Automatic annotation (TrEMBL), chains A, B:
Residues 3-181 form the 3-hydroxyacyl-CoA dehydrogenase NAD binding domain. The keyword Nuclease does not apply. Belongs to the 3-hydroxyacyl-CoA dehydrogenase family. GO terms for molecular function: L-gulonate 3-dehydrogenase activity; NAD+ binding. GO terms for cellular component: cytoplasm. It comes from Roseovarius gaetbuli. This is L-gulonate 3-dehydrogenase. PANTHER family: 3-HYDROXYACYL-COA DEHYDROGENASE FAMILY PROTEIN, LAMBDA-CRYSTALLIN HOMOLOG.
Protein backbone atom coordinates (compact mmCIF):
# COMPACT_ATOMS: atom_id res chain seq x y z
CA UNK A 1 0.00 0.00 0.00
CA UNK A 2 1.13 3.49 -0.81
CA UNK A 3 0.90 6.03 1.97
CA UNK A 4 -0.06 9.71 2.09
CA UNK A 5 0.43 11.99 5.11
CA UNK A 6 -2.21 14.60 5.96
CA UNK A 7 -1.01 17.22 8.44
CA UNK A 8 -3.70 19.08 10.42
CA UNK A 9 -6.95 17.33 11.39
CA UNK A 10 -9.51 20.11 10.94
CA UNK A 11 -12.39 19.82 8.46
CA UNK A 12 -10.09 20.28 5.47
CA UNK A 13 -7.60 17.69 6.67
CA UNK A 14 -10.45 15.26 7.33
CA UNK A 15 -11.85 15.83 3.86
CA UNK A 16 -8.47 15.12 2.29
CA UNK A 17 -8.00 11.94 4.34
CA UNK A 18 -11.38 10.69 3.07
CA UNK A 19 -10.44 11.50 -0.54
CA UNK A 20 -7.07 9.71 -0.34
CA UNK A 21 -8.48 6.66 1.47
CA UNK A 22 -11.32 6.39 -1.07
CA UNK A 23 -8.68 6.21 -3.79
CA UNK A 24 -7.04 3.28 -2.02
CA UNK A 25 -4.14 5.06 -0.27
CA UNK A 26 -3.15 4.44 3.31
CA UNK A 27 -3.50 7.75 5.15
CA UNK A 28 -1.50 8.82 8.18
CA UNK A 29 -3.09 11.83 9.86
CA UNK A 30 -1.17 14.03 12.25
CA UNK A 31 -2.22 16.95 14.40
CA UNK A 32 -0.27 18.74 17.13
CA UNK A 33 -3.34 18.05 19.29
CA UNK A 34 -3.74 14.26 19.69
CA UNK A 35 -7.28 14.87 20.92
CA UNK A 36 -8.21 16.74 17.71
CA UNK A 37 -6.86 13.82 15.68
CA UNK A 38 -8.96 11.28 17.56
CA UNK A 39 -12.11 13.41 17.26
CA UNK A 40 -11.42 13.67 13.53
CA UNK A 41 -11.67 9.89 13.14
CA UNK A 42 -15.19 9.97 14.63
CA UNK A 43 -16.34 12.80 12.41
CA UNK A 44 -15.00 11.04 9.34
CA UNK A 45 -16.86 7.83 10.22
CA UNK A 46 -20.11 9.81 10.22
CA UNK A 47 -19.19 11.55 6.92
CA UNK A 48 -18.48 8.23 5.28
CA UNK A 49 -21.85 6.80 6.28
CA UNK A 50 -23.46 9.87 4.66
CA UNK A 51 -21.54 9.00 1.50
CA UNK A 52 -22.91 5.45 1.69
CA UNK A 53 -26.46 6.78 2.05
CA UNK A 54 -26.02 8.76 -1.17
CA UNK A 55 -24.41 5.80 -2.98
CA UNK A 56 -21.12 7.67 -3.38
CA UNK A 57 -19.37 4.88 -1.44
CA UNK A 58 -20.58 1.28 -1.27
CA UNK A 59 -21.48 -0.21 2.11
CA UNK A 60 -18.74 -2.81 1.61
CA UNK A 61 -16.09 -0.15 0.97
CA UNK A 62 -16.96 2.08 3.92
CA UNK A 63 -15.14 0.05 6.63
CA UNK A 64 -12.15 -0.49 4.34
CA UNK A 65 -11.86 3.25 3.73
CA UNK A 66 -11.93 3.95 7.45
CA UNK A 67 -9.37 1.24 8.14
CA UNK A 68 -6.91 2.87 5.80
CA UNK A 69 -6.93 6.05 7.90
CA UNK A 70 -4.84 6.11 11.07
CA UNK A 71 -3.63 8.78 13.45
CA UNK A 72 0.17 8.86 13.62
CA UNK A 73 1.69 9.26 17.10
CA UNK A 74 4.35 11.68 15.83
CA UNK A 75 5.12 13.82 12.81
CA UNK A 76 8.05 11.50 12.03
CA UNK A 77 5.73 8.49 11.99
CA UNK A 78 3.23 10.30 9.77
CA UNK A 79 5.87 11.23 7.19
CA UNK A 80 7.74 7.93 7.20
CA UNK A 81 7.35 6.31 3.75
CA UNK A 82 4.72 8.84 2.64
CA UNK A 83 4.73 9.53 -1.12
CA UNK A 84 2.86 12.83 -0.70
CA UNK A 85 2.22 15.30 2.11
CA UNK A 86 -0.92 17.43 2.30
CA UNK A 87 -0.62 20.21 4.87
CA UNK A 88 -3.88 21.75 6.13
CA UNK A 89 -2.68 23.88 9.04
CA UNK A 90 -3.93 27.28 10.21
CA UNK A 91 -4.12 30.13 7.65
CA UNK A 92 -1.25 32.16 9.13
CA UNK A 93 1.92 32.99 7.27
CA UNK A 94 4.25 32.39 10.24
CA UNK A 95 2.61 29.04 11.01
CA UNK A 96 2.80 27.92 7.37
CA UNK A 97 6.49 28.84 7.31
CA UNK A 98 7.24 26.94 10.51
CA UNK A 99 5.27 23.80 9.59
CA UNK A 100 6.66 23.63 6.06
CA UNK A 101 10.22 24.07 7.36
CA UNK A 102 9.64 21.13 9.70
CA UNK A 103 8.04 18.94 7.02
CA UNK A 104 10.90 19.64 4.63
CA UNK A 105 13.47 18.73 7.28
CA UNK A 106 11.87 15.36 8.05
CA UNK A 107 10.33 14.11 4.78
CA UNK A 108 12.29 12.00 2.30
CA UNK A 109 13.75 14.02 -0.62
CA UNK A 110 11.46 14.96 -3.50
CA UNK A 111 8.23 14.00 -1.73
CA UNK A 112 5.87 16.85 -2.71
CA UNK A 113 4.54 19.09 0.07
CA UNK A 114 1.15 20.54 -0.91
CA UNK A 115 -0.61 23.19 1.16
CA UNK A 116 -4.42 23.51 1.39
CA UNK A 117 -4.17 27.29 1.86
CA UNK A 118 -6.85 29.32 0.11
CA UNK A 119 -5.19 32.67 0.51
CA UNK A 120 -1.41 32.41 1.03
CA UNK A 121 0.81 31.93 -2.02
CA UNK A 122 3.45 29.30 -1.21
CA UNK A 123 6.28 31.57 -2.36
CA UNK A 124 5.57 33.79 0.65
CA UNK A 125 6.64 31.12 3.13
CA UNK A 126 8.96 28.71 1.29
CA UNK A 127 11.57 30.99 -0.28
CA UNK A 128 14.17 30.26 2.41
CA UNK A 129 13.36 26.56 2.69
CA UNK A 130 15.96 24.11 1.34
CA UNK A 131 13.34 21.96 -0.39
CA UNK A 132 11.33 24.81 -1.87
CA UNK A 133 11.38 23.02 -5.24
CA UNK A 134 8.87 20.51 -3.83
CA UNK A 135 6.51 23.04 -2.19
CA UNK A 136 3.29 24.19 -3.87
CA UNK A 137 -0.35 24.99 -3.15
CA UNK A 138 -2.92 22.21 -3.62
CA UNK A 139 -6.13 24.02 -2.78
CA UNK A 140 -9.39 22.10 -2.34
CA UNK A 141 -12.89 23.61 -2.32
CA UNK A 142 -14.78 23.07 0.89
CA UNK A 143 -15.88 20.38 1.67
CA UNK A 144 -12.98 18.56 -0.04
CA UNK A 145 -14.58 15.12 0.12
CA UNK A 146 -17.58 16.39 -1.90
CA UNK A 147 -16.27 19.04 -4.32
CA UNK A 148 -13.92 17.51 -6.94
CA UNK A 149 -12.15 20.73 -8.05
CA UNK A 150 -8.58 21.20 -6.80
CA UNK A 151 -6.25 24.10 -7.68
CA UNK A 152 -2.57 23.31 -8.18
CA UNK A 153 -0.41 26.44 -7.88
CA UNK A 154 3.38 26.26 -8.29
CA UNK A 155 5.79 28.85 -6.85
CA UNK A 156 8.55 30.27 -9.07
CA UNK A 157 10.81 27.54 -7.63
CA UNK A 158 8.52 24.53 -7.86
CA UNK A 159 10.03 21.79 -10.03
CA UNK A 160 7.74 21.09 -13.03
CA UNK A 161 8.15 17.37 -12.30
CA UNK A 162 6.66 17.94 -8.85
CA UNK A 163 3.68 19.70 -10.45
CA UNK A 164 3.16 16.80 -12.89
CA UNK A 165 3.50 14.24 -10.11
CA UNK A 166 0.95 15.99 -7.88
CA UNK A 167 -1.42 16.50 -10.81
CA UNK A 168 -1.27 12.77 -11.66
CA UNK A 169 -1.82 11.83 -8.02
CA UNK A 170 -4.85 14.12 -7.75
CA UNK A 171 -6.35 12.70 -10.95
CA UNK A 172 -5.81 9.21 -9.50
CA UNK A 173 -7.83 10.45 -6.51
CA UNK A 174 -10.61 11.44 -8.93
CA UNK A 175 -10.01 15.15 -8.43
CA UNK A 176 -10.65 17.64 -11.24
CA UNK A 177 -7.42 19.60 -11.34
CA UNK A 178 -7.01 23.25 -12.26
CA UNK A 179 -3.32 23.77 -12.95
CA UNK A 180 -2.10 27.37 -12.80
CA UNK A 181 1.05 28.34 -14.67
CA UNK A 182 2.04 30.78 -11.93
CA UNK A 183 0.88 32.26 -8.63
CA UNK A 184 -1.91 34.83 -8.56
CA UNK A 185 -3.74 36.12 -5.48
CA UNK A 186 -6.97 34.20 -4.91
CA UNK A 187 -5.96 31.62 -7.52
CA UNK A 188 -8.77 30.97 -10.02
CA UNK A 189 -11.78 29.76 -8.04
CA UNK A 190 -11.94 32.60 -5.54
CA UNK A 191 -11.17 35.23 -8.18
CA UNK A 192 -14.17 34.04 -10.20
CA UNK A 193 -16.32 33.94 -7.09
CA UNK A 194 -15.08 37.39 -6.07
CA UNK A 195 -15.88 38.92 -9.46
CA UNK A 196 -19.42 37.56 -9.35
CA UNK A 197 -19.91 38.63 -5.72
CA UNK A 198 -18.64 42.15 -6.42
CA UNK A 199 -21.36 42.62 -9.06
CA UNK A 200 -23.92 40.93 -6.77
CA UNK A 201 -23.12 43.29 -3.88
CA UNK A 202 -23.45 46.27 -6.24
CA UNK A 203 -26.86 45.16 -7.51
CA UNK A 204 -28.27 44.35 -4.08
CA UNK A 205 -26.60 47.37 -2.49
CA UNK A 206 -28.19 49.75 -4.99
CA UNK A 207 -31.63 48.32 -4.22
CA UNK A 208 -32.19 47.11 -7.78
CA UNK A 209 -32.87 43.55 -6.68
CA UNK A 210 -33.24 41.60 -3.44
CA UNK A 211 -30.62 39.02 -2.46
CA UNK A 212 -33.32 36.34 -2.72
CA UNK A 213 -34.13 37.27 -6.32
CA UNK A 214 -30.46 37.63 -7.22
CA UNK A 215 -29.89 34.12 -5.85
CA UNK A 216 -32.56 32.82 -8.24
CA UNK A 217 -30.67 34.30 -11.20
CA UNK A 218 -27.97 31.73 -10.41
CA UNK A 219 -29.75 28.77 -8.76
CA UNK A 220 -32.61 28.74 -11.31
CA UNK A 221 -30.69 30.33 -14.16
CA UNK A 222 -26.97 30.38 -14.90
CA UNK A 223 -26.02 27.84 -12.22
CA UNK A 224 -28.00 25.03 -13.87
CA UNK A 225 -25.69 24.78 -16.89
CA UNK A 226 -22.65 25.68 -14.79
CA UNK A 227 -23.14 22.55 -12.66
CA UNK A 228 -21.98 20.43 -15.59
CA UNK A 229 -20.37 22.91 -18.00
CA UNK A 230 -18.01 25.80 -17.28
CA UNK A 231 -18.61 29.41 -18.43
CA UNK A 232 -16.22 29.21 -21.39
CA UNK A 233 -17.80 26.06 -22.80
CA UNK A 234 -21.24 27.60 -22.15
CA UNK A 235 -20.54 30.59 -24.41
CA UNK A 236 -18.76 28.39 -26.96
CA UNK A 237 -22.07 26.55 -27.43
CA UNK A 238 -24.10 29.77 -27.55
CA UNK A 239 -23.11 30.76 -31.09
CA UNK A 240 -23.29 28.49 -34.14
CA UNK A 241 -19.61 29.05 -34.89
CA UNK A 242 -18.34 28.99 -31.35
CA UNK A 243 -16.67 31.32 -28.91
CA UNK A 244 -15.05 33.78 -31.35
CA UNK A 245 -18.43 34.41 -32.94
CA UNK A 246 -20.04 34.73 -29.49
CA UNK A 247 -17.56 37.46 -28.57
CA UNK A 248 -18.16 39.20 -31.89
CA UNK A 249 -21.94 39.15 -31.27
CA UNK A 250 -22.10 39.92 -27.55
CA UNK A 251 -18.71 41.29 -26.47
CA UNK A 252 -19.76 44.89 -27.04
CA UNK A 253 -22.99 44.34 -25.10
CA UNK A 254 -21.13 43.04 -22.04
CA UNK A 255 -18.63 45.87 -22.29
CA UNK A 256 -21.49 48.39 -22.34
CA UNK A 257 -22.70 47.19 -18.91
CA UNK A 258 -19.37 48.28 -17.44
CA UNK A 259 -19.19 45.20 -15.23
CA UNK A 260 -15.46 44.73 -15.70
CA UNK A 261 -12.67 46.69 -14.02
CA UNK A 262 -11.15 49.65 -15.82
CA UNK A 263 -8.07 47.72 -16.99
CA UNK A 264 -10.48 45.49 -18.85
CA UNK A 265 -9.05 42.81 -21.13
CA UNK A 266 -9.90 42.66 -24.85
CA UNK A 267 -12.23 39.66 -25.18
CA UNK A 268 -11.63 39.44 -28.93
CA UNK A 269 -7.88 39.07 -28.52
CA UNK A 270 -8.37 36.31 -25.95
CA UNK A 271 -10.95 34.58 -28.15
CA UNK A 272 -8.67 34.67 -31.19
CA UNK A 273 -5.39 33.85 -29.51
CA UNK A 274 -6.35 31.42 -26.75
CA UNK A 275 -9.96 30.23 -26.78
CA UNK A 276 -10.35 29.62 -30.50
CA UNK A 277 -7.32 27.32 -30.81
CA UNK A 278 -8.12 25.56 -27.51
CA UNK A 279 -11.74 24.84 -28.46
CA UNK A 280 -10.66 23.70 -31.91
CA UNK A 281 -9.18 20.78 -29.94
CA UNK A 282 -11.90 20.41 -27.28
CA UNK A 283 -15.10 20.99 -29.25
CA UNK A 284 -14.49 21.87 -32.92
CA UNK A 285 -17.12 24.04 -34.55
CA UNK A 286 -18.48 21.07 -36.50
CA UNK A 287 -19.30 19.31 -33.20
CA UNK A 288 -21.26 22.23 -31.73
CA UNK A 289 -24.76 21.02 -32.75
CA UNK A 290 -24.15 17.63 -31.10
CA UNK A 291 -22.65 19.29 -28.03
CA UNK A 292 -25.72 21.55 -27.79
CA UNK A 293 -28.02 18.53 -27.94
CA UNK A 294 -25.98 16.79 -25.22
CA UNK A 295 -26.16 19.96 -23.10
CA UNK A 296 -29.95 20.11 -23.36
CA UNK A 297 -30.21 16.45 -22.37
CA UNK A 298 -28.03 17.08 -19.33
CA UNK A 299 -30.15 20.11 -18.50
CA UNK A 300 -33.36 18.07 -18.64
CA UNK A 301 -31.78 15.32 -16.54
CA UNK A 302 -30.73 17.97 -14.00
CA UNK A 303 -34.25 19.44 -13.89
CA UNK A 304 -35.68 15.97 -13.28
CA UNK A 305 -33.09 15.47 -10.55
CA UNK A 306 -33.95 18.83 -8.94
CA UNK A 307 -37.67 18.03 -9.02
CA UNK A 308 -36.99 14.68 -7.34
CA UNK A 309 -34.62 15.99 -4.68
CA UNK A 310 -36.97 18.83 -3.82
CA UNK A 311 -39.28 16.23 -2.27
CA UNK A 312 -36.54 13.78 -1.14
CA UNK A 313 -34.34 16.20 0.76
CA UNK A 314 -36.46 18.94 2.28
CA UNK A 315 -34.51 21.55 4.23
CA UNK A 316 -33.98 19.99 7.66
CA UNK A 317 -35.68 22.16 10.24
CA UNK A 318 -37.08 21.60 13.74
CA UNK A 319 -40.59 21.77 12.29
CA UNK A 320 -40.20 19.17 9.54
CA UNK A 321 -37.68 16.93 11.24
CA UNK A 322 -40.27 14.71 12.97
CA UNK B 1 -59.76 28.58 -20.62
CA UNK B 2 -57.56 31.63 -20.25
CA UNK B 3 -55.54 32.66 -23.25
CA UNK B 4 -52.05 34.08 -23.70
CA UNK B 5 -50.68 35.52 -26.95
CA UNK B 6 -47.05 34.89 -27.93
CA UNK B 7 -45.81 37.14 -30.73
CA UNK B 8 -42.82 35.91 -32.75
CA UNK B 9 -42.31 32.19 -33.37
CA UNK B 10 -38.54 31.84 -33.09
CA UNK B 11 -36.89 29.62 -30.46
CA UNK B 12 -37.75 32.03 -27.64
CA UNK B 13 -41.39 32.36 -28.69
CA UNK B 14 -41.65 28.58 -28.95
CA UNK B 15 -40.16 28.14 -25.48
CA UNK B 16 -42.68 30.58 -24.02
CA UNK B 17 -45.60 28.86 -25.77
CA UNK B 18 -44.52 25.55 -24.21
CA UNK B 19 -44.24 27.13 -20.75
CA UNK B 20 -47.70 28.74 -20.94
CA UNK B 21 -49.39 25.62 -22.35
CA UNK B 22 -47.76 23.44 -19.66
CA UNK B 23 -49.34 25.72 -17.06
CA UNK B 24 -52.78 25.12 -18.61
CA UNK B 25 -53.18 28.30 -20.67
CA UNK B 26 -54.45 28.37 -24.22
CA UNK B 27 -51.70 29.87 -26.37
CA UNK B 28 -52.20 31.79 -29.60
CA UNK B 29 -48.92 32.15 -31.49
CA UNK B 30 -48.46 34.75 -34.18
CA UNK B 31 -45.62 35.43 -36.56
CA UNK B 32 -45.51 37.78 -39.57
CA UNK B 33 -44.31 34.70 -41.47
CA UNK B 34 -47.10 32.09 -41.48
CA UNK B 35 -44.57 29.51 -42.57
CA UNK B 36 -42.35 30.20 -39.53
CA UNK B 37 -45.37 29.74 -37.29
CA UNK B 38 -46.26 26.36 -38.80
CA UNK B 39 -42.65 25.15 -38.55
CA UNK B 40 -42.66 26.23 -34.91
CA UNK B 41 -45.49 23.82 -34.14
CA UNK B 42 -43.43 20.90 -35.45
CA UNK B 43 -40.33 21.88 -33.47
CA UNK B 44 -42.40 22.21 -30.31
CA UNK B 45 -43.88 18.74 -30.76
CA UNK B 46 -40.36 17.33 -30.80
CA UNK B 47 -39.35 19.42 -27.75
CA UNK B 48 -42.33 18.18 -25.80
CA UNK B 49 -41.48 14.55 -26.50
CA UNK B 50 -38.00 15.25 -25.12
CA UNK B 51 -39.68 16.57 -21.98
CA UNK B 52 -41.70 13.36 -21.75
CA UNK B 53 -38.52 11.28 -22.06
CA UNK B 54 -37.04 13.11 -19.07
CA UNK B 55 -40.27 12.83 -17.06
CA UNK B 56 -40.73 16.61 -17.02
CA UNK B 57 -44.12 16.16 -18.75
CA UNK B 58 -46.27 13.02 -18.49
CA UNK B 59 -47.09 11.08 -21.66
CA UNK B 60 -50.78 11.77 -21.02
CA UNK B 61 -50.23 15.54 -20.78
CA UNK B 62 -48.10 15.87 -23.91
CA UNK B 63 -50.93 15.84 -26.49
CA UNK B 64 -53.04 18.14 -24.28
CA UNK B 65 -50.21 20.65 -24.09
CA UNK B 66 -49.78 20.64 -27.86
CA UNK B 67 -53.53 20.99 -28.40
CA UNK B 68 -53.58 24.17 -26.35
CA UNK B 69 -51.14 25.83 -28.77
CA UNK B 70 -52.51 27.23 -32.03
CA UNK B 71 -51.22 29.53 -34.71
CA UNK B 72 -53.45 32.60 -35.08
CA UNK B 73 -54.25 33.70 -38.65
CA UNK B 74 -53.84 37.38 -37.76
CA UNK B 75 -52.43 39.58 -35.02
CA UNK B 76 -56.01 40.62 -34.14
CA UNK B 77 -57.00 36.98 -33.69
CA UNK B 78 -53.93 36.29 -31.56
CA UNK B 79 -54.64 39.22 -29.21
CA UNK B 80 -58.40 38.74 -28.97
CA UNK B 81 -59.30 37.81 -25.34
CA UNK B 82 -55.64 37.34 -24.38
CA UNK B 83 -54.88 38.13 -20.71
CA UNK B 84 -51.16 38.55 -21.38
CA UNK B 85 -48.94 39.23 -24.40
CA UNK B 86 -45.36 37.97 -24.64
CA UNK B 87 -43.47 39.60 -27.50
CA UNK B 88 -40.35 37.79 -28.75
CA UNK B 89 -39.51 39.72 -31.91
CA UNK B 90 -36.11 40.61 -33.35
CA UNK B 91 -33.59 42.41 -31.11
CA UNK B 92 -33.76 45.76 -32.92
CA UNK B 93 -34.90 48.97 -31.31
CA UNK B 94 -36.93 50.17 -34.33
CA UNK B 95 -38.66 46.79 -34.66
CA UNK B 96 -39.49 46.64 -30.95
CA UNK B 97 -40.96 50.14 -31.16
CA UNK B 98 -43.09 49.29 -34.19
CA UNK B 99 -44.37 45.96 -32.85
CA UNK B 100 -45.16 47.31 -29.40
CA UNK B 101 -47.00 50.28 -30.90
CA UNK B 102 -49.12 47.85 -32.90
CA UNK B 103 -49.78 45.54 -29.95
CA UNK B 104 -50.81 48.49 -27.78
CA UNK B 105 -53.22 49.73 -30.45
CA UNK B 106 -55.00 46.38 -30.78
CA UNK B 107 -54.89 44.74 -27.33
CA UNK B 108 -57.62 45.31 -24.74
CA UNK B 109 -56.74 47.95 -22.12
CA UNK B 110 -54.46 46.96 -19.24
CA UNK B 111 -53.39 43.64 -20.73
CA UNK B 112 -49.65 43.55 -19.94
CA UNK B 113 -47.19 43.54 -22.86
CA UNK B 114 -43.96 41.78 -21.86
CA UNK B 115 -40.89 41.75 -24.11
CA UNK B 116 -38.38 38.88 -24.17
CA UNK B 117 -35.53 41.26 -25.06
CA UNK B 118 -32.21 40.52 -23.39
CA UNK B 119 -30.56 43.78 -24.22
CA UNK B 120 -33.05 46.59 -24.88
CA UNK B 121 -34.61 48.38 -21.91
CA UNK B 122 -38.34 48.87 -22.58
CA UNK B 123 -38.18 52.59 -21.82
CA UNK B 124 -36.11 53.02 -24.99
CA UNK B 125 -39.01 52.03 -27.23
CA UNK B 126 -42.24 52.64 -25.28
CA UNK B 127 -41.90 56.24 -24.10
CA UNK B 128 -44.17 57.60 -26.82
CA UNK B 129 -46.67 54.73 -26.67
CA UNK B 130 -50.11 55.49 -25.20
CA UNK B 131 -50.16 52.30 -23.13
CA UNK B 132 -46.61 52.55 -21.85
CA UNK B 133 -47.90 51.86 -18.32
CA UNK B 134 -48.46 48.24 -19.36
CA UNK B 135 -45.11 47.68 -21.11
CA UNK B 136 -42.17 45.96 -19.41
CA UNK B 137 -39.38 43.47 -20.02
CA UNK B 138 -40.06 39.82 -19.15
CA UNK B 139 -36.72 38.24 -20.01
CA UNK B 140 -36.30 34.44 -20.08
CA UNK B 141 -33.01 32.56 -20.08
CA UNK B 142 -32.48 30.39 -23.14
CA UNK B 143 -33.99 27.85 -23.58
CA UNK B 144 -37.11 29.25 -21.84
CA UNK B 145 -38.90 25.92 -21.56
CA UNK B 146 -35.98 24.48 -19.54
CA UNK B 147 -34.52 27.33 -17.47
CA UNK B 148 -37.01 28.57 -14.84
CA UNK B 149 -35.46 32.00 -14.13
CA UNK B 150 -37.29 35.01 -15.60
CA UNK B 151 -36.32 38.67 -15.13
CA UNK B 152 -39.14 41.21 -14.75
CA UNK B 153 -37.96 44.75 -15.47
CA UNK B 154 -40.35 47.72 -15.23
CA UNK B 155 -39.81 51.02 -17.04
CA UNK B 156 -40.21 54.30 -15.11
CA UNK B 157 -43.83 54.34 -16.37
CA UNK B 158 -44.83 50.75 -15.73
CA UNK B 159 -47.82 50.54 -13.38
CA UNK B 160 -46.83 48.60 -10.20
CA UNK B 161 -50.10 46.63 -10.57
CA UNK B 162 -48.94 45.44 -13.99
CA UNK B 163 -45.65 44.26 -12.42
CA UNK B 164 -47.54 42.37 -9.69
CA UNK B 165 -49.92 40.83 -12.19
CA UNK B 166 -47.12 39.62 -14.48
CA UNK B 167 -45.13 38.33 -11.49
CA UNK B 168 -48.15 36.32 -10.27
CA UNK B 169 -48.77 34.96 -13.77
CA UNK B 170 -45.13 33.87 -14.13
CA UNK B 171 -45.20 32.15 -10.73
CA UNK B 172 -48.38 30.36 -11.83
CA UNK B 173 -46.34 29.18 -14.84
CA UNK B 174 -43.75 27.78 -12.40
CA UNK B 175 -41.16 30.42 -13.31
CA UNK B 176 -38.66 31.68 -10.74
CA UNK B 177 -39.02 35.44 -10.99
CA UNK B 178 -36.30 38.03 -10.47
CA UNK B 179 -38.08 41.34 -10.02
CA UNK B 180 -35.95 44.44 -10.60
CA UNK B 181 -36.97 47.73 -8.99
CA UNK B 182 -35.76 49.68 -12.02
CA UNK B 183 -34.05 49.30 -15.39
CA UNK B 184 -30.32 48.62 -15.57
CA UNK B 185 -28.36 47.61 -18.69
CA UNK B 186 -27.99 43.82 -18.90
CA UNK B 187 -30.52 43.36 -16.09
CA UNK B 188 -29.21 40.99 -13.39
CA UNK B 189 -28.47 37.65 -15.09
CA UNK B 190 -26.23 38.97 -17.85
CA UNK B 191 -24.48 41.42 -15.53
CA UNK B 192 -23.52 38.51 -13.25
CA UNK B 193 -22.46 36.43 -16.23
CA UNK B 194 -20.50 39.37 -17.66
CA UNK B 195 -18.64 39.98 -14.40
CA UNK B 196 -17.60 36.34 -14.18
CA UNK B 197 -16.65 36.23 -17.88
CA UNK B 198 -14.55 39.39 -17.61
CA UNK B 199 -12.42 37.77 -14.90
CA UNK B 200 -12.35 34.49 -16.86
CA UNK B 201 -11.09 36.25 -20.02
CA UNK B 202 -8.39 37.98 -17.95
CA UNK B 203 -7.15 34.73 -16.41
CA UNK B 204 -7.14 32.77 -19.67
CA UNK B 205 -5.81 35.75 -21.64
CA UNK B 206 -2.83 36.15 -19.30
CA UNK B 207 -1.95 32.47 -19.75
CA UNK B 208 -2.38 31.67 -16.05
CA UNK B 209 -4.87 28.90 -16.76
CA UNK B 210 -6.36 27.12 -19.77
CA UNK B 211 -10.04 27.58 -20.62
CA UNK B 212 -10.54 23.86 -19.95
CA UNK B 213 -9.14 24.12 -16.42
CA UNK B 214 -11.02 27.36 -15.76
CA UNK B 215 -14.22 25.59 -16.79
CA UNK B 216 -13.55 22.91 -14.14
CA UNK B 217 -13.34 25.62 -11.45
CA UNK B 218 -17.06 26.16 -12.11
CA UNK B 219 -18.43 22.81 -13.37
CA UNK B 220 -16.61 20.77 -10.69
CA UNK B 221 -16.35 23.53 -8.12
CA UNK B 222 -18.51 26.60 -7.56
CA UNK B 223 -21.24 25.59 -10.02
CA UNK B 224 -22.20 22.50 -8.00
CA UNK B 225 -23.64 24.51 -5.10
CA UNK B 226 -24.85 27.25 -7.43
CA UNK B 227 -27.17 24.78 -9.21
CA UNK B 228 -29.41 24.76 -6.14
CA UNK B 229 -28.28 27.75 -4.07
CA UNK B 230 -27.43 31.29 -5.18
CA UNK B 231 -24.13 33.06 -4.38
CA UNK B 232 -25.57 35.14 -1.53
CA UNK B 233 -27.06 32.14 0.26
CA UNK B 234 -23.82 30.26 -0.36
CA UNK B 235 -21.73 32.82 1.54
CA UNK B 236 -24.42 33.20 4.21
CA UNK B 237 -23.88 29.51 5.03
CA UNK B 238 -20.08 29.81 4.92
CA UNK B 239 -19.72 31.56 8.28
CA UNK B 240 -21.26 30.37 11.56
CA UNK B 241 -23.01 33.72 12.06
CA UNK B 242 -23.98 34.35 8.49
CA UNK B 243 -23.26 36.80 5.75
CA UNK B 244 -22.14 39.80 7.82
CA UNK B 245 -19.52 37.64 9.52
CA UNK B 246 -18.48 36.20 6.15
CA UNK B 247 -17.83 39.71 4.83
CA UNK B 248 -15.90 40.60 7.97
CA UNK B 249 -13.72 37.51 7.55
CA UNK B 250 -13.20 37.44 3.79
CA UNK B 251 -14.18 40.85 2.40
CA UNK B 252 -10.65 42.21 2.67
CA UNK B 253 -9.24 39.11 0.96
CA UNK B 254 -11.55 39.51 -2.04
CA UNK B 255 -10.79 43.21 -2.22
CA UNK B 256 -7.06 42.45 -2.28
CA UNK B 257 -7.46 40.42 -5.51
CA UNK B 258 -8.69 43.57 -7.23
CA UNK B 259 -11.33 41.64 -9.15
CA UNK B 260 -13.95 44.37 -8.90
CA UNK B 261 -14.13 47.58 -10.91
CA UNK B 262 -12.61 50.74 -9.51
CA UNK B 263 -15.94 52.16 -8.27
CA UNK B 264 -16.16 49.11 -6.03
CA UNK B 265 -19.04 48.91 -3.55
CA UNK B 266 -18.47 48.53 0.22
CA UNK B 267 -19.45 44.93 0.95
CA UNK B 268 -19.79 45.67 4.68
CA UNK B 269 -22.36 48.39 4.11
CA UNK B 270 -24.40 46.10 1.87
CA UNK B 271 -24.12 43.23 4.35
CA UNK B 272 -25.26 45.40 7.26
CA UNK B 273 -27.99 47.36 5.51
CA UNK B 274 -29.47 44.86 3.06
CA UNK B 275 -28.26 41.28 3.39
CA UNK B 276 -28.33 40.98 7.18
CA UNK B 277 -31.97 42.07 7.55
CA UNK B 278 -33.06 40.06 4.50
CA UNK B 279 -31.42 36.84 5.69
CA UNK B 280 -32.80 37.37 9.19
CA UNK B 281 -36.13 36.62 7.45
CA UNK B 282 -34.93 33.96 4.98
CA UNK B 283 -32.43 31.94 7.04
CA UNK B 284 -31.92 33.34 10.55
CA UNK B 285 -28.52 32.68 12.10
CA UNK B 286 -30.00 30.02 14.38
CA UNK B 287 -31.07 27.98 11.34
CA UNK B 288 -27.63 28.02 9.70
CA UNK B 289 -26.47 24.60 11.00
CA UNK B 290 -29.62 22.91 9.66
CA UNK B 291 -29.33 24.79 6.38
CA UNK B 292 -25.69 23.66 6.08
CA UNK B 293 -26.71 20.03 6.64
CA UNK B 294 -29.46 20.36 4.01
CA UNK B 295 -26.92 21.90 1.60
CA UNK B 296 -24.50 18.99 2.03
CA UNK B 297 -27.32 16.49 1.43
CA UNK B 298 -28.27 18.30 -1.77
CA UNK B 299 -24.62 18.34 -2.79
CA UNK B 300 -24.31 14.58 -2.29
CA UNK B 301 -27.57 13.98 -4.18
CA UNK B 302 -26.20 16.14 -7.02
CA UNK B 303 -22.92 14.21 -7.10
CA UNK B 304 -24.85 10.95 -7.29
CA UNK B 305 -26.94 12.43 -10.10
CA UNK B 306 -23.84 13.58 -11.98
CA UNK B 307 -22.23 10.15 -11.64
CA UNK B 308 -25.40 8.54 -13.01
CA UNK B 309 -25.92 10.95 -15.91
CA UNK B 310 -22.28 10.67 -16.93
CA UNK B 311 -23.04 7.12 -18.11
CA UNK B 312 -26.68 7.75 -19.12
CA UNK B 313 -26.18 10.77 -21.38
CA UNK B 314 -22.81 10.54 -23.12
CA UNK B 315 -22.07 13.43 -25.46
CA UNK B 316 -23.89 12.58 -28.68
CA UNK B 317 -21.34 12.32 -31.47
CA UNK B 318 -21.17 10.55 -34.83
CA UNK B 319 -18.73 8.05 -33.32
CA UNK B 320 -20.81 7.02 -30.32
CA UNK B 321 -24.26 7.46 -31.83
CA UNK B 322 -24.45 3.93 -33.31
Amino acid sequence: MTKIATIGCGLIGQGWATVFAQAGFDVAMYDASAEAAERALETMASRISDLVEFELVTAADAPRILQRITVAPSLEDALNDAVYIQESGPERLDVKREITQMLDAIAAPDVPIGSSTSGISASRYCKEIAGRHRCLVVHPINPPHLIPAVEIVPTPWTDPDIVSKVNALMIECRRETIVLSEEIDGFVVNRLQGALLEEAFKLVGSGIVSAADLDKAISDGLGLRWSFMGPMQTIHLNAPEGVAQYVERYGEMYRSFGVGPSDSVDWKDVANEKLGPEFEERIPTSDIPDAQAARDRKLMALLRHKAQTRSETPPVSPVTQE
